[in-house]
Amino acid sequence: MDLGLRGKSAIVCASSRGLGRGCAEALAEAGCNLVINGRDQAALEATRVHLAEQFQVNVTAVAADVSTPEGQAALLDVCPQPDILVNNNGGPPRKDYTELDRDALLGGVVQNFVTPIELIQAVTPGMKERGFGRIVNITSLSVKMPIEGLDLSSGARAGLTAFLAGVCRQLAPYGVTVNNLLPGKMDTDRLKGGFERTAQQAGISIEAVRESQAAEIPARRFGNSEEFGQTCAFLCSQYGGYITGQNILMDGGLYPAAF
What one-character DSSP code corresponds to residue 97? Predict the structure, then answer.
């Protein structure tokens, strides 16, 4: 399927690995020129080389913390007028709500609420002028279903969802869409880190934890970055123009709801 994205420009935040990389790969496959981002210079450069060689598109790597004004400025300096923005950022570490002090609370809000809004504010004027724009925010299943220890991340991402629910309606007349992808248990380094922590606490093997958690998912498996990325690319495509303001769960049926 031709997604109609060849020659479009995309900024994909936190894209040197995991779900962000999956999105970058799918957009590169569709013909987008990319700006990728991460804080691990070696991993970022390896991703840049792979994407450029595999898909024959222009790929610029920006090593920066996207949560900082300096990091955002670096991204926008190399791509001031993107057609596509994929907001992604690491969440605060798993921690009980009683252990969160003011600095931790504010840090989590900056990471998962303030940062994507600032980037959206920066890129939407140009998108409106050109009559085309696609914004995809990677949030989390935890926006809909609480996950113990992720209260700060969940609250900040839920706040972003509510904030953009009105904004997306203001942008829709200009051909600019805003949607959220909500990953459940995806086979990423972050999930594996959780397996290790649970295994250590319970005194069982990592493989036992993995099998137990997979069994809780109706699909009986974890998601992967490739299918996640392809869903992102479709939302960004010429066929995604009538989809906006949506929260799209990718969780293998884990969230039990009819609506």
Answer: G
Given a contact cutoff of 8 angstroms between Cβ atoms, the answer to whether 36 and 30 are in contact is no
Q: What helix, strand, coil percent values describe the chain, rounded to 5?
A: 50, 15, 35
Contact 135, 87 (CB under 8 A): yes
**pLDDT of 190 higher than 80:** no
**The token pair that represents 213 in the structure block:** 């958690």
pLDDT band at 146 (very low <50, low <70, confident <90, very high): confident
pLDDT digits (tens, 9 = 90+) for 35-77: 999 999 999 999 999 999 999 999 999 999 999 999 999 999 9
* DSSP, residue by residue, 208-249: HHHHHHHHTSTTSS-B-HHHHHHHHHHHHSTT-TT--S-EEE
Q: Residue-wise over 163-179: b if at least 16 C-beta within 10 A, else e?
A: ebeebbeebeebebbbb
Query: Kind and range of the H or E element at 88?
Result: none
Structure tokens at 146: 């609480």
Half-sphere exposure of 236 (CA within 13 A, CB side): 33
The number of residues in the chain equals 259
DSSP letter at 9? Answer: E
- Domains, the chain, ranges and CATH? 9-186+223-250 (3.40.50.720)
pLDDT at 122: 98
Average confidence score pLDDT of the chain: 95
Residues 6+ apart with CB under 8 A from 258: none
| Nearest of 6, 3, 19 to residue 187 by alpha carbon | 19
Would residue 247 be called left, alpha or beta, if left means φ above 0 and alpha means ψ between -120 and 50 degrees? beta
